[in-house]
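Cross-check.
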Amino acid sequence: MIPSLKKLKEGNRRFVQGQSEQTIESIISQRNASVEGQKPFAVILGCSDSRVPAELVFDQGLGDLFVIRVAGNVVAPSQIGSVEYAVSMFGTPLGVVLGHSNCGAVDATIQAIKNPDEPASISIQSIVKRIKPALEPMLINQSIDQVKVNDVVAANIKKSVAQLLSSSEIIESRVDNQQLQVLGAYYDLETGQVTFYED
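Predicted model, tokenized:
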């Protein structure tokens, strides 16, 4: 296990147990130390959901994580570019796509399939269109009414990881050269625990 992944796992364990290492004093010290630059040890592409702030979930301080947040943790050119920036500029060795239980963007995708005639803004539709490919294979053996939100969340996380790995020469090259590991992770809103998809 690479040190960066170990740090995230240990931080999440502290978060679940309510034993954060972050204090007002440490945050002030981190703020002062990070004025001249940053050296994040992980890039987190997570959902915008207000209940899943990566720094708290992983009990990390200022300058530790390079966090990109977008509804449904979807992958689009701006997110790919943000990950490329972090790994190129700072040599960040770990990328994590962080999804979570009961994701509203995933539920919106399910509802859009159930009710295709209900209007949604073009911008919301763009998010739905990026999540749909993770859901559609599930409809081979079940109806949309049988699909469970959290099953789609897991599939969407894995799809986003695959997109990051296949849509960027920078990311792909660093993975091939063992300079970068990219994996998915699932955050349980009820327990606070993060499960990493390490295979």
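The CA atoms of residues 59 and 92 lie 18 Å apart. Residues 149-166 form the longest helix (18 residues). Passed to J.P. for a second look.
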